[in-house]
Amino acid sequence: MLAVGLGSLGGSLPRPAEAATEAAFVSEQVFAVAYGKIAEVYLQQVDFGRLGLDGLKGLATIDPTARAERQGNTVRLYVSGSVIGEYAAPSLSDAAGWAALTTKAVERARLYSPTLYQAVPERVYQVVLDSVMTDLDGYSRYTGTQRATSERAQREGYGGIGLSLETANGRTLIRNVVPRSPADRAGIRSGDQLLAIDGDLTARLSESDMRDRLRGPTGTMVLLTVARDNNPPRRAPIRRERVVPNTVNASVSEQVGVLKVDRFNAATASNLRDAVLSTRQSVGKGLRGFVLDLRGNPGGLLDQAVAVADLFIAQGKIITTEGRHPDSRQRFEAGPDDIAEGMPLVVLVDGRSASSAEVVAAALQDSGRAVVVGASSYGKGSVQTVTRLPNDGELFLTWSRIYTPAGYTLHRQGVQPTVCTSRTGQDDPVALLSDLRDGRARPMTQFAGWRARAADDEEALARLREACPWKEHEPELDLKVALRLLAEPALYQRAVALSSTNTVAER
């Protein structure tokens, strides 16, 4: 709270900011929810004396003359070198107290800084919470309203009709119609030209306007005017539904089903199940197995990663998670079915495979259900909770570590492929499999000691990284190796035997 009047603060005070329009208020509730959630669920206990002060220091991002410092139990706020406010510092664990102090200090600073006065509240939330997040781990972050809205749509779905647009040569074309979406059922196809939305010509609308007009509350109607080839335009009234983007793409190569998963959203496991069943039906008895391509997959929803692994694992542990909050300590077990009925499975990973992608790869590898091929994955072995704040922004907070069925953490080290394709000078699929074919390949159990220490031991981590580096390499090489493995059942079984690893530490 404000401790003293302006007259006793000393120094030459700047005049309060003057503006033609009233500045919007910064909501204490945004900081209260954010700080309270950090105190409740973050992986480690935090010191709000440091976090709260650093949050106020973030104001300098907007106005470099704004700064905050703490002396004893007093927090002082400066603008242009003069003290403009003094506050009694709450205790180090008082999240609500620091949220209240932050709000009062921000509003005070805006009175004396024209730059801060003119900043919209969202900009203030961003700089303060960004500064707070730098005191936590690298995966905890604040996402502002606009970006959070877009990410939620990708993750959880949105009210719409299930298509994307592309503007080229003055024409608006429809691309990527989501299967079984309202647009798909209405007969809209990729390549159709979109002429109008609710009677307004698309030629007069921006891309963002068109996107906003296509989306809306579920159950509402939108009228599209479309044309295909040289046929006359037709009108298509479509009712909006919840649409979750499809992140799974299926193809067939050499009698092998190739399943590419771009990320994990609310529909990934369901779409992958459909892709497996459709591939089995279309290829028939000649199907030799599947390749699950997780390269470049940054992760996503943990429950979907567990569900994807469970599609192929008939029994046993998938992952365990451990954190400070009681609800963060979980153990996930596989159900009694395998959608591929034991057919050979190869998983592709690279240095950009992270988080949920690593959960799936590690579970399938440790259980002996699949052979992992490629380069070492990213090494994001933590789970984040997502809190929607009162301003519609989102707070991502790390609250647990992930442990694989073998007991090691994915943190920093990631997943080690059974067949590494990223070593220098190795670009021939036949040569890459020669050690495996001749019995010289190193079993995953030999990595157990390094894995047990790699989360905190730089030498152990370096050994793992040297064994199969992150290095970029020819993308087609991974698939060629996978297809060759699946073409030789005996070689595949030898790789599976090497993939299974002893438990590092029971959890």
TrEMBL record:
Residues 150-229 form the PDZ domain. It comes from Azospirillum himalayense. The lineage of its organism: Bacteria, Pseudomonadati, Pseudomonadota, Alphaproteobacteria, Rhodospirillales. Keywords: Hydrolase, Protease, Serine protease. Belongs to the peptidase S41A family. SUPFAM superfamilies: ClpP/crotonase, PDZ domain-like. Gene3D superfamilies: 2-enoyl-CoA Hydratase, Chain A, domain 1, 2.30.42.10, 3.30.750.44. SMART domains: PDZ (SM00228), TSPc (SM00245). This is S41 family peptidase.
